[in-house]
Write a structure and sequence with these properties.
Two copies of one chain form a homodimer. Chain A is of the alpha/beta class and 529 residues long. Helix content of chain A is 27%, strand content 26%. In chain A, a hairpin with a 2-residue loop joins strand 23 and strand 24. In chain A, helix 9 crosses helix 10.
Chain lengths: 529, 529
């Protein structure tokens, strides 16, 4: 018996841009520039430029499996670099410009990258990083056409654009297995040392198909997507892949994520779906509240990164006239784990949605054993799936337990309808007098106060109780509340001994490079550790 | 350097039901019964029963790669059989009850299946088929609890239900590679001898993700899907997979696809999306036009199988208050190739939508060479993709050309926006006086006449011209039109020598087992060949 066969078809990321270039050649990728105007290119043109980058890199000796680093904002050039690197079968190491040069150099050294592609305005940082890494032979600057002054020999710093002029454009993509690595991203390090997560073509391809689903981001060819999540972190949630796969317009904000810039961009480009963390949209709301204006084209905002305060969600929905989709994910998940459907009438800020097919969740005890009851109880959140980490870069040990589950470090409940509710970080828990206090529950109450912009609860070393909670708060512009008023909101909502011992007023609260509240820094500054 | 890894995660179809059972345990699969009432079961219960079937089959000696045949309508039992067979790694051969026992026996013999699972009301046909196939050792009847009278020894005919009672329910699914075969379906044979198409877990998994996309069927967990496409043909367009993957309700009409039955089912089950060929929805429209009534829950109808007449599309949209999504596909494509997005304001009956990521189209000349210009010209439609045939069952030769393209046999244009317009079947073309006549263009004009229900143009042997077109027409109930009136609609719309030489009035026009007009039969009866 000769069995039939289906065509071979490798799930590689270059196919997204090939598809977009063929079927949506004129659909634009738009980049906001510092000048106030925007650059734009169709997918067909973007593919041609990305292919040229592949040829240039290939000419510089980059081969399948080699790492190439990028240090850049969300821009057309960065998208071209992604596809140019990944299409060749090389691995794109995305570097966060808000980290220190020492942190970045450590990542580059670990990756063994020899080429660094950087935004022109990040050239000084790129050079300082490169000067610490002997393996880096070349820094290629994007978004600059003049060749910059060479940095005296090594590493060679030059503009990429002139190299592209005569580069060939023939198709050389996809000559590798779908399980080949495509990306390398170090975790944000808000709770520990950065660890490298390797993405593969297959995992990011399958993750992309998830974004297109009706119950996830529901990205359509008629949408214009604003990617306000950085491309230097967790694949920008896969948006540069998903927009191409769907033939949707993609709007990239460059380095400016302030409320005024984003509000302008949303309106000039008629954005329909905007994706980013809650604090970014708070900025847009505050800008509109101060300066007036509406965002009529905007239909939905997808938020993630940290649980959203209910008051903030309501404020965003009301002021911007949008539906907010909450989500949950992490670098190790590519990053999307769960997402609230676009039109869930029962949605709430606490709920992070449900897992789409390809993601499975399990609640476990502290020892990693599955809880006998999975609904309505709190547990340590474990995850398995087609785009979930199995092993960190450079680590010989698996990142999963014996049953193949990855422990996210989050605490969570799953309600009767299967909605995920993140209740805290296991590492953020405060142990006071031998009992656990969950900062997230206190933060949720404080954040609901209309005058509070951001709130964080951390543990402070205490000679008698081990740890005691203290509250760090940032008020909305020009507003303040007395300690008594703030704490009275907690009475009856949390146990009396959960009430913080002190209140620290900061303006602003320090944020980690990913935009989350930097609790590590707060613990150092105020936690006595 | 130790590279990082993503978790292994095989794309196998059993995962859909596992996911549905865990996250949507009470969401129902509903089956319409002859009694007028409906049976219903949640995904959790359906998974348990499917696992029992796997254990029963395993106990009967079915191993990975073995074929198991089904001869059944769209029902819960058939879905259970699918998952029971496929979860085990066996291959489900779906048989069309509207074929002859000789045709069915030939398919079963070719497949080497040893077990046949059949709807109880198809037991006589199943026995007749089995009696022609010595390899069939057992016929298992579903939707019957009493053991039927044994058919005198061989093959053993018995009810499946009693065997399930004591079957174990432990998880034994997914113990095979994702490239393992999952299904085997013979093409409908309206234009030639049936050929077997083998589906794999991977191809059907990826095809399923396509259905969930925003620009394809946009299936959401809040939807109720009516699968009016038969499970015995081309995976019922993947709906039993997609509904489970999305956690959507699935409504199965059993064997009754008449307008009255479907209208009732749509309303009692509050169907939101209905999928089937155009003639099925014409039946619903005619029923409502005659008997009154509305279908308020119904939002969308996805049609395929054959290009839709513009007048019929408009009539369906207006009478049912729905959006009609046109599509194009074929058995060899798993089957969906293109689909019009749910809310395309420029939609029209002629357009079959655009290819989603994972499907690529190419227009070629008769020799298979790609046309230099792909837009705005007619060509032979070739396709490539993750769920497209590479080789027919039992055929040592590839079904693709040297560049990996499968020739669909369809003629098509692609418009400036990338919409596919099927212009005819290459084999249906009529050669008259050395020039080609395209029946599809004539049919489109005739079908637009308000009194015409169905129209087909075929070639009749002609001593002078080689072939001449003749028109076969079925009028709406109680209506008729003179030959002159009918043909006058063509004048000025098609070339004068394309006007059919004769009109044959049939009531009804014979349909092939898939519901398409049976042009092979028409050619035999009226074509002089």
């Amino acid at each position: 018996m000769i069995d039939g066969k289906i065509q071979p078809y490798a799930l590689t990321l270059d196919k997204f841009l090939d598809h977009a270039a063929k079927w949506s050649p004129d659909v634009e990728v738009v980049t906001a520039r510092d000048t106030g105007r925007s650059d734009r290119i169709g997918y067909a043109g973007l593919r041609t430029r990305s292919l040229k980058i592949s040829h240039v890199l290939s000419g510089l000796g980059v081969a399948t499996g080699d790492r190439v680093a990028t240090l850049a904002w969300n821009s057309q050039s960065h998208v071209e670099a992604w596809y140019g690197i990944m299409g060749l079968g090389a691995v794109c190491l995305t570097l966060n410009p808000r980290l220190t040069e020492a942190q970045l150099a450590a990542m580059v050294i670990q990756s063994e990258a020899r080429i660094l592609i950087a935004s022109a305005d990040l050239a000084p940082l790129a050079q300082r990083v490169a000067s610490r890494v002997s393996a880096i032979g070349r820094v290629l600057l994007v978004d600059v056409t003049d060749a910059p002054a060479k940095a005296g020999g090594k590493p060679a710093v030059e503009a990429l654009e002139p190299l592209l002029a005569d580069a060939p454009t023939d198709a050389i993509w996809g000559r590798f297995a779908e399980t080949a690595a495509s990306g390398l991203c170090f975790t944000s390090g808000t709770t520990g040392a950065p660890k490298g997560v390797t993405y593969t073509h297959r995992s990011s391809y399958l993750h992309t198909l998830r974004l297109l689903q009706a119950d996830v981001m529901r990205i359509s060819s008629t949408d214009t997507i604003l990617a306000a999540v950085p491309m230097f972190h967790a694949n920008a949630w896969g948006l540069p892949f998903a927009a191409a796969a769907a033939g949707a317009r993609l709007v990239l904000p460059g380095r400016h994520l302030d409320g005024a810039s984003l509000a302008t961009l949303i309106n000039t480009e008629a954005v329909t779906i905007a994706v980013g963390i809650g604090t970014v949209w708070l900025g847009v709301v505050e800008h509109l509240e101060t300066h007036g204006g509406e965002t009529p084209s905007l239909e939905r905002i997808v938020v993630g990164g940290a649980p959203l305060a209910p008051a903030l969600m309501e404020r965003i929905e009301r002021r911007l006239g949008v539906i907010v989709q909450t989500s949950w994910g992490m670098t190790e998940l590519s990053p999307l784990g769960t997402c609230a459907p676009p039109a869930d009438p029962g949605r709430s800020a606490q709920m992070s949605g449900r897992p789409a097919i390809g993601v499975d969740l399990q609640l476990a005890d502290a020892a990693g054993q599955a809880l006998p009851e999975q609904r309505g109880v709190e547990g340590h959140l474990h995850v398995r799936g087609s785009a979930v980490i199995d092993r960190y870069f450079g680590d010989p040990e698996p990142a999963t337990n014996a049953d193949g589950w990855f422990n996210t470090g989050d605490l969570a409940r799953i309600d009767a309808d299967g909605n995920l509710i993140i209740t805290g970080r296991a590492k953020d828990l405060i142990k006071s007098g031998g009992e656990w206090i969950n900062p997230a529950e206190i933060e949720a109450v404080i954040s609901a106060h209309p005058s509070v912009s951001l709130a964080a609860v951390i543990g402070r070393l205490d000679p008698k109780w081990g740890e005691r909670p203290i509250l760090v708060v940032q008020f909305c512009a020009g507003q303040s509340v007395s300690d008594d008023d703030l704490l009275s909101a907690l009475r009856g909502r949390v146990a009396p001994w959960w009430i913080p011992d002190a209140i620290i007023r900061l303006d602003p609260i320090p944020l980690a490079p990913t935009g989350k509240i930097d609790k590590m820094r707060l613990r150092v500054d105020y936690g006595g550790c």
